[in-house]
């Protein structure tokens, strides 16, 4: 039998027509002389009716099948006597005249339903079964639809889809590379690309002008909910483009995807917010603008406070800042607040000061130090009776990180983050460099090929402080999460050399790592820039999934292991010998 249509696409327009459908048995109900089967394929479910009086042979087939058997059925589409409003095909059913079993199934390791009662590890081990669950298949289909829109959008805007190498040279910056040993050149290694960054710049040197690619990237870094060791990004680059050109092109893409995939109209252009404003008001470079609860600097108001924590902090050139939790006075106890105080210590905060706004003034641990200034503070903060004021004192990053976390935490608890609100915002004018505590050195905030603002180029000269410079870089943020970022690139070899110097690279080190790029800069590199959007993360938001693991067909778990194939795994001694590699003896006895 040749399939005529998908199960979930069978419709009222086909009533009276004969169809052939094929798929998996999602549910089976035996009512004596009647057997009902919910047949599932990627499009959805349709109800099959097997009537012993109409076709005894087909009825006998239905009597043999069990859940997750693969079957085919030929029958007549008819209207249901009782409509099921919860099903897309709830107004019709198929009266089966002929059926056959295509594949049997042993009992499932877990039930194939959306509300699955199984650990994520078990689901990942049997991922092909997990993907049969309707919500998982819908996410895969949504992702596919997004990539179709992406291809159409860039094609109509004159971009070339160009593939870049996945075996390349290791140029470690930030995250660790995944390295691949060469059999032909013993002792030498390829690296899997952390991004196509260098190659897309070289494509601009080649005259490609407008490039895009849906690119696979690899980073050997610690995992969390929105990270994977291998991930996919929508990568773009444009010659002779300004930041505004690239942002407008990106907004057009987002607008098309939102409309064609979710049927949601988003207003463009998106708001622009300077990095400094985002940090000052939201405590993060990924601001969630769906709610207020902004951070306020109260340093001037408390610089002479008798509470020494505040006055000494301001005297040392640091900050005292606060947020107001609306209605938080009655909602949160001292114990609740203490839990958050313990949490922000991971940001190196020394403590969390707080007061509750009452009819007669402040109540709380530091109320006696602030009651005399209550009117001024309430006016500055917009606080009113029943609110909770949270205060953190410390360095810029300690205060921003702590209050940024608290702002998002309490907004979630108070239900201020509407999942159906889509607030895109550009974060612009980033610092060129940032200090990395983990590496103990200054690094490029985005990457070392980012062009500085023209007015800041003098900071690269001898005797100047390069860490004061800002860059022509920009991130696109959705509801408090970065989904992409980019910049204008350096196309002048002298500026690139000065940036390498500011990062502590000797000429020899820069030449050894990036000599091919430096040579391209010397051979007619046009002004250019680009951007990359994290496809996995964006689809996670579009599908309202909890993790990017839910929108990747075969993801790694939180330990960078793929349970389905048990990768990574040991290889044979012969393979190691061919690569001239040795595994230390003490490693051989460890468990995988």
Care to describe what's here?
- This protein is α+β, with helices and mostly antiparallel strands and 592 residues long.
- It folds into 3 domains: 97 residues, Nucleic acid-binding proteins (OB fold (Dihydrolipoamide Acetyltransferase, E2P), Beta Barrel); 289 residues, Bira Bifunctional Protein, Domain 2 (BirA Bifunctional Protein, domain 2, 2-Layer Sandwich), CATH 3.30.930; 123 residues, Gyrase A, domain 2.
- It is 30% helix and 25% strand.
- It is built from 19 helices and 22 strands.
- It has an 8-stranded mixed beta sheet, with helices on both faces.
- A hairpin with a 2-residue loop joins strand 14 and strand 15.
- Helix 4 packs across helix 6 and helix 15 packs antiparallel against helix 16.
- The chain is globular.
- The C terminus is likely disordered.
Can you summarize the main beta sheet? Answer: 8 strands, mixed
What level of helicity do the residues show?
Answer: 25-40%
Instruction: Return the domain count.
Output: 3
Number of helices: 19
* Spatial strand arrangement across the major sheet: 6-9-10-22-21-20-17-11
CATH superfamily of the largest domain: Bira Bifunctional Protein, Domain 2
**Global structural class:** alpha+beta
Strand content: 25-35%
Mean pLDDT: 95
Q: How does the overall form come out from the CA principal axes?
A: globular
Indicate the radius of gyration in whole angstroms.
30 Å
* CATH architecture level-2 label of the largest domain: 2-Layer Sandwich
Which stretches are low in confidence, meaning pLDDT under 50 for 5 or more residues running?
587-592
């Amino acid at each position: 039998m040749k399939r005529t249509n998908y199960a979930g696409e069978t419709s009222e327009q086909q009533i009276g027509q004969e169809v052939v459908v094929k798929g998996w048995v999602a549910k089976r109900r035996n009512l004596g002389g009647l057997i009902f089967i919910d047949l599932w394929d990627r499009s959805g479910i349709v109800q099959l009716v097997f009537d012993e009086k109409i076709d005894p042979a087909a009825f006998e087939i239905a009597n043999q099948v069990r859940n997750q058997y693969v079957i085919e059925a030929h029958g007549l589409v008819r209207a249901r006597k009782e409509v099921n409003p919860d099903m897309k095909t709830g107004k019709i059913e198929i009266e089966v005249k002929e059926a056959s079993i295509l594949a049997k199934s042993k009992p499932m390791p877990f039930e194939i339903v959306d509300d699955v009662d199984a650990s994520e590890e078990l689901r990942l081990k049997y991922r092909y079964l997990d993907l049969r669950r309707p919500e998982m298949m819908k996410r895969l289909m949504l992702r596919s639809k997004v990539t179709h829109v992406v291809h159409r959008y860039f094609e109509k805007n004159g971009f070339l889809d160009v593939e870049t190498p996945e075996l390349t040279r290791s140029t470690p910056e930030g995250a660790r590379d995944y390295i691949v040993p060469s059999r032909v050149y013993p002792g030498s290694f390829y690296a899997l690309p952390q991004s196509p960054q260098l190659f897309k710049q070289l494509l601009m040197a080649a005259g490609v002008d407008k490039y895009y690619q849906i690119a696979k990237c690899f980073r050997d870094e610690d995992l969390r909910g929105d990270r994977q060791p291998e991930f996919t990004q929508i990568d773009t680059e444009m010659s002779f483009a300004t930041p505004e050109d690239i942002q407008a092109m990106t907004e057009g893409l987002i607008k098309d995807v939102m409309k064609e995939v979710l049927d949601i109209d988003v207003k463009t252009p998106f708001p622009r917010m300077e990095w400094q404003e985002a940090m000052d008001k939201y405590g993060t470079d990924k601001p969630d603008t769906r709610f207020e609860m902004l951070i306020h600097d109260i340093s001037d108001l408390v610089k002479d406070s008798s509470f020494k924590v505040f006055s000494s902090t301001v005297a040392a050139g640091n900050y005292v800042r606060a947020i107001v939790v609306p209605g938080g006075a009655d909602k949160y106890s001292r114990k609740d607040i203490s839990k958050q105080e313990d949490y922000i210590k991971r940001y190196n905060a020394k403590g969390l000061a707080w007061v509750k706004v009452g009819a007669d003034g402040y109540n709380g641990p530091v109320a006696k130090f602030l009651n005399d200034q209550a009117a001024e503070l309430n006016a500055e903060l917009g606080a009113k009776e029943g609110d909770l004021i949270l205060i953190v004192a410390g360095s810029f990053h300690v205060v921003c990180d702590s209050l940024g976390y608290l702002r998002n935490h309490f907004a979630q608890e108070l239900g201020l983050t509407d999942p159906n609100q889509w607030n895109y915002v550009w974060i612009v004018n980033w610092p060129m460099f940032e200090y990395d505590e983990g590496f103990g050195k200054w690094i490029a905030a985005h990457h070392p090929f980012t062009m500085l603002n023209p007015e800041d180029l003098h900071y690269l000269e001898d005797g100047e402080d390069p860490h004061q410079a800002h860059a022509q870089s920009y991130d696109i943020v959705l509801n408090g999460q970065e989904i992409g970022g980019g910049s204008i690139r350096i196309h002048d070899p002298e500026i690139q050399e000065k940036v390498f110097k500011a990062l502590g690279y000797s000429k020899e080190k820069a030449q050894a790592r990036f000599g091919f790029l430096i040579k391209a800069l010397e051979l007619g590199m046009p002004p250019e820039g680009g951007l990359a959007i994290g496809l996995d993360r964006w689809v996670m938001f579009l599908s309202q999934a909890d993790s990017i693991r839910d929108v990747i067909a075969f993801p790694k778990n939180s330990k960078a292991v793929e349970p389905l194939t048990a990768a990574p795994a040991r290889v044979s001694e012969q393979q190691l010998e061919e690569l001239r590699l040795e595994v230390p003896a003490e490693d051989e006895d460890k468990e995988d």
